[in-house]
Every structure is written in structure tokens, then in C-alpha cells.
Design brief:
The protein has one domain: (Glycosyl)asparaginase (Glutamine Phosphoribosylpyrophosphate, subunit 1, domain 1, 4-Layer Sandwich), CATH 3.60.20. 29% of the residues lie in helices and 24% in strands. It contains ten helices and 14 strands. An eight-stranded mixed beta sheet has the order 5-4-3-7-6-2-12-13. Helix 2 packs antiparallel against helix 3. The chain starts with a strand and ends with a strand. The structure holds aspartic acid. The site of aspartic acid has 12 residues, from strand 9.
Length: 344
């Protein structure tokens, strides 16, 4: 069995000892750094497939479109993308071989909608938007979410691919028929590496300064049937507030649920933290709550503030995020992490 060594990430070490005692540092001692304002719109997305999602979003944002339309377009791109096994069509199924999708969408005025454990509907983010715009509710789940989607004109179609079914069959041969805690570690050397891009979290600020976000996923592969992660839970996988900024998450959703994590990141920004600082403090909160578990699971946060400044942080190395604005189109950045995990 693979053994692992964890040590503080080199980027933190490189930043000097002063950056390390964040767990204990007196955050009130230094004033927060002045936010770096951007001129115009910007969109950011989790993982390297975020580049494609950003491009789809930018078609709206770049022409002066609304942030809400942009994040929906970006999320739809990822849901239709045939190259990832963690979002929308082509996602890996649950323990019982059923593909269930989770998604949420939110704007900076607090309007939000979500669907959980949705089956056989290709674009859960758009169903989530309909929940937001056409019902008095925020979250629809399971059969009810599917019924609503069909009533709204969404086509019902099988989404499980042969590739995903084969991966599930392979997993069943070797597993104890229990869901693993982090699908990112199933086949690959590092959590969150480029072969297993997880939830698509996308955040945008438009030219009028309005924010919006969306989050869409098939959740952890081989999860128990009926398991709902953080992505469709407003405050856990996604939170947006025009007064402050927006945050989204990827990784083991149970940790985000335990910590109301995206809400936490936004509230830390409200208290004056930069997006970077807020993401790092939220990661540190996860570690403090469950130090042992934190060594073997991945948690990642991405945030943007109302000025367009972007920050990210992960528990383990490997989290990348994509940034797109008028100046840069396909930028892909490595997020700093608390631990660097090495396989030996
Ligand atoms: N956060 C997602 C979930 O727990 C999965 C992921 O981002 O890896 O469902």
C-alpha cells in the first residue's frame, strides 16, 4: 500500500517563517492589504478544466454580459465536457452504479437555487437556475428535482458513459464495496492532480461590479447512493455576496459541510481578509477541526472579492485554478497548500 509523507508546502516555507504561524497569528495586528482593483470583468474557475469553463463564461462577460449568465455558461461547458469524469455527463457513478449530479447557482444579491442527487438531466446548473427563478424554493433533490426539470422542458436522457461504467466495474473488483473518502486518490499519485479534476466552481464579476457563482459536480465517485456533497449546499460549496465577494470549494464535501466553508471564506473577507488569507484561514479551520483526517483528504477554496482580487488555498498540493479577464485569457495558477503530500 502506498505510504505518504506530509510536510509544510515549500511555498509557505519560501514565504518565510512569518507566514507559518497562521494558526496562532494575531490577525488584528496588521491591517489587511489594500485590495487590488481590476478594470472590468473577471472570471475564475477551479481546476484545469476551468480554462474551458472560463472561455465559455468570457463570451458573455467580455461583451458586457451579466455575471450570472456567465457562470451558468461556464458551468454548462463543464457539464457537457466529455473529458472529465467528475462533472455532468461522463461523471463517475455512485456505489450502486447510478450517476447523480449536484449543482448550485447564486448571485450577489442572495438569490440562489440548487439541485441535489439529480439523475438523467444533462445540465443541473440550469435546473438550479430555474429553481432560483421559477420557484419559491432554494433546493430540490432526487426524484422531485428530476420531475421539476422535466416539467421545465429539460430532456431526460441516460448520462452514464461506457467509460464510467467500466471504471465502476473495475472499482467493484477491488473495493470492499464501500465508498472511498476521496475519489481523487483512486488511480493517481496526488490528490487533485491533472487527471482528476473535480467539482467545477466558477465565480465571476461583471463590468457593473456584480458577482455570481455556480458549482456543479457528480460528487465523489462511488459515494453511497443518496449522498449529497457540498456543491449544491449554499454556504458550503458556494457563497456570493455583492457587498464582499464570492467563494467556492472543491474536495471532500463533508469537510465543507462541517465548516459552512464557502460562507466562512466570504465572512473572513468581510472581516478584512484578502481572498488569499480568507481561503488559507478556512483551510486551517478544517485542519484544526480534524487534524488527522486532514492528512488524507483534499479540500480546496477559491475566492474573489468585490474588487476582483482573487485568492485560493488547498489542504494538499495539486489544486490549480483558472483566471480569465481582459488581460489574461487562459491563465492557470497553482494554489498554495498547507501540506505537500508526496507518494513514496
Ligand atoms: N466537493 C465534491 C463533493 O464532495 C467533490 C469534489 O470537489 O471533489 O461532492
Amino acid at each position: 500500500m502506498t505510504s505518504r509523507r506530509s510536510f509544510l508546502h515549500s511555498s509557505l516555507l519560501a514565504a518565510g517563517a512569518a507566514a507559518l504561524p497562521a494558526f496562532a497569528a494575531d490577525k488584528t495586528a496588521a491591517p489587511p492589504p489594500a485590495p487590488k482593483a481590476i478594470d472590468g470583468a473577471r472570471v475564475v474557475s477551479t481546476w484545469d478544466f476551468g480554462v474551458g469553463a472560463n472561455q465559455a463564461a468570457w463570451k458573455r462577460l467580455g461583451e458586457g454580459g451579466a455575471a450570472l449568465d456567465a457562470v451558468e455558461a461556464g458551468a454548462r461547458w463543464a457539464e457537457a465536457d466529455l473529458c472529465n469524469s467528475t462533472v455532468g455527463r461522463c461523471g463517475n457513478p455512485d456505489r450502486d452504479g447510478v450517476l447523480t449530479l449536484d449543482a448550485s447557482i447564486m448571485d450577489g444579491d442572495g438569490r440562489c437555487g440548487a439541485v441535489a442527487a439529480l439523475e438523467d438531466i444533462a445540465h443541473p446548473v440550469s435546473v438550479a437556475r430555474r429553481v432560483m427563478e421559477r420557484t419559491p424554493h432554494v433546493l430540490l433533490a432526487g426524484a422531485g428535482a428530476q420531475q421539476f426539470a422535466v416539467e421545465q422542458g429539460f430532456a431526460k436522457e441516460p448520462l452514464l458513459t461506457d467509460k464510467a461504467r467500466a471504471a465502476w466495474n473495475e472499482w467493484r473488483k477491488t473495493s470492499q464495496y464501500q465508498p472511498v473518502i476521496n475519489a481523487e486518490r483512486l488511480d493517481h499519485a496526488r490528490p487533485g492532480d491533472k487527471h482528476n479534476h473535480d467539482t467545477l466552481g466558477i465565480l465571476a464579476i461583471d463590468r457593473s461590479g456584480k458577482l455570481a457563482g455556480a458549482c456543479t459536480t457528480s460528487g465523489m465517485a462511488w459515494k453511497l447512493h443518496g449522498r449529497v456533497g457540498d456543491s449544491p449546499i449554499v454556504g458550503a460549496g458556494l457563497y456570493v455576496d455583492n457587498d464582499v465577494g464570492a467563494a467556492t470549494a472543491s474536495g471532500v464535501g463533508e469537510e465543507m459541510l462541517r465548516n459552512a466553508a464557502s460562507f466562512l471564506v466570504v465572512e473572513l473577507m468581510r472581516q478584512g481578509r484578502s481572498p488569499d488569507e480568507a481561503c488559507r484561514e478556512a483551510i486551517e479551520r478544517v485542519v484544526r477541526k480534524r487534524p488527522q483526517a486532514s492528512k488524507t483528504l483534499q479540500v480546496c477554496f477559491l475566492a474573489i472579492d468585490k474588487h476582483g482580487e482573487v485568492g485560493a488555498h488547498a489542504l494538499h498540493r495539486g489544486f490549480v485554478y483558472a483566471v480569465c479577464d481582459a488581460g489574461k485569457r487562459d491563465a492557470l495558477l497553482d494554489a498554495p497548500s498547507v501540506y505537500a503530500t508526496e507518494q513514496t
